[in-house]
Design brief:
The radius of gyration is 20 Å and the shape is globular. The two termini are 34 Å apart. 29% of the residues are buried. Helix content is 13%, strand content 26%. The strands form 2 sheets. Strands 1, 2, 3, 4, 5, 6, 7 and 8 form an 8-stranded mixed β-sheet that branches. The chain has a two-stranded antiparallel ribbon with strand order 9-10.
Length: 223
């Protein structure tokens, strides 16, 4: 059974020596694959390992490249990617609103990556995905991930004119957000075949049927 969300006993910033240790922690079960997931369930975790040239890492936002199409020996992209298996799993996260755990490898070229080992970066939402031509000329699936847990401090330094005001004080802000259980919403969608209960329309996408579950009656007292 897949676990979507944090793993008990692990914390953001935890560093693991290798993929085996990372797998044993439960954060990312596969010891080789970059995406852990099933096409019908969604993806529970990914690892940024520097394997795909089209990956972009901005800390709070990540543009992640799907799996497939690479030469096993050279690591170069030699074919178009397909929206199947783990690629389809990540697309399911967008449709179902499922969070994905993100881990950065020391091999991943980013100022947010650890110098050694594998660092757990927290939960991200898949907010968009699309198909486009990558740097090597082949089409790849790309996913936009936004950090759920906190706002990372910016690594870029801003040069300011001090004038007579002196240096500007900065404070790091951490924003904690509630990760809601999406199981009930998913069940409701399935009961109604992903159809709108007002107009009866069902929206079909490349990754399957899409629907939003909304509270008609507000949450909390006195409802």
């Amino acid at each position: 059974m897949r676990t979507f969300g944090h793993i008990d006993g692990t914390f953001i910033g935890d560093i693991f020596d290798n993929r085996v240790a990372l797998a044993k922690s439960g954060i990312h079960p596969p010891t080789q694959a970059g995406i852990s997931g099933g096409s019908k369930e969604g993806a529970d975790s990914i690892v940024l390992s520097g394997g795909y040239e089209d990956d972009e890492d901005f800390g709070n936002e990540i543009i992640y490249t799907g799996a497939g199409g690479r030469d096993e020996n050279t690591g170069k992209q030699i074919a178009d990617q397909q929206l199947i298996r783990t690629n389809l799993a990540l697309a399911k996260n967008r449709l179902e609103g499922l969070p994905v755990r993100v881990t950065r490898s020391y091999k991943h070229k980013s100022p947010y990556s650890p110098k050694t080992g594998y660092e757990y970066a927290g939960l991200y939402n898949v907010v968009d995905y699309w198909y486009e031509k990558g740097r090597s000329g082949f089409k790849v699936w790309r996913y936009k991930l936004i950090l759920i847990d906190s706002v990372l401090p910016a690594l870029d330094k801003v040069q300011e004119v001090s004038a007579k005001y002196g240096s500007t004080k900065r404070t790091e802000i951490i924003v904690q957000r509630i990760i809601r259980d999406s199981a009930i919403a998913k069940k409701v969608k399935q009961w109604h075949n992903y159809q709108c209960q007002v107009c009866g329309i069902a929206i079909n996408t490349l990754a399957g049927l899409y629907a939003e579950a909304a509270h008609i009656q507000p949450l909390g007292k006195p409802h």
